[in-house]
Amino acid sequence: MDRDPRGGHNRKKVNEDFFKIWSPKMAYVLGFIYADGAVEDCRDSSRTCYLVLSNNDLDLLSDISKAMSAEKSVQIKQPRLTKFKGKEYWCKTSYVVRIGNKKIYEDLIQLGLCPRKSLVIQLPELPEQFFSYFLRGYFDGDGCINIEKTKKNRMNIIFTSGSKIFIEQLASKIQSACPILKSSISNGNGAFQLRYNWKNALIVADYMYRDIKTTPYLKYKYNKYIDYMSVRG
């Protein structure tokens, strides 16, 4: 669809049917949005709706934009101090991509997203064959790999969300997809963490990183996993 010269409907070119058909790339990007994205209904002020993607890794946002055939326009957020619950935190340089498109917004609403989603999201219904890609997208947005600095040098996989029900549903879905023995959910600083330790972390990572070349992925997290596996032998 061409741009609206008034700037109200579709300000950047994008594949507005991207979220209509399930695919590995679509599932990955949806998972990433559930973690590190937002949808905004701005029709009262600018006659359109937005998908907003943010991350500290410019290459990842570029790869996601390419997957969506989106005309990339990146906003740079400089390092800054921010406050959360009375504490100050130093934020690194980050990048933001805003895509104005009503159809994409409406498709994402149908897929379970909503404005100000952090505390209320639930796991969407998705075909089983695409869950690993969704999981990897979510992990790249709100997950981490932790290597214990001990003699055993064990790896942990952690997923984080402000929504307790989402984390519980995610744990249940992973349990049904992988032969996991044990996981734990904790709550701290207003966020819930789903943690897999050692052997269970290896099972989750192996499941999550299969077919790695079929979608965008956050290279430094994947390389951290590969480096760990090469040392572990």
UniProtKB/TrEMBL annotation:
Protein's name in the database: DOD-type homing endonuclease domain-containing protein
Species name: Candidatus Collierbacteria bacterium CG10_big_fil_rev_8_21_14_0_10_43_36
Gene Ontology terms for molecular function: endonuclease activity
InterPro entries: Homing_endonucl, Intein_endonuc_central, LAGLIDADG_dom
Classification via Pfam families: LAGLIDADG_3 (PF14528)
Domain of life: Bacteria
Domain DOD-type homing endonuclease: 29-170
SUPFAM superfamilies named among the record's database cross-references: Homing endonucleases
Gene3D superfamilies named among the record's database cross-references: Homing endonucleases (3.10.28.10)
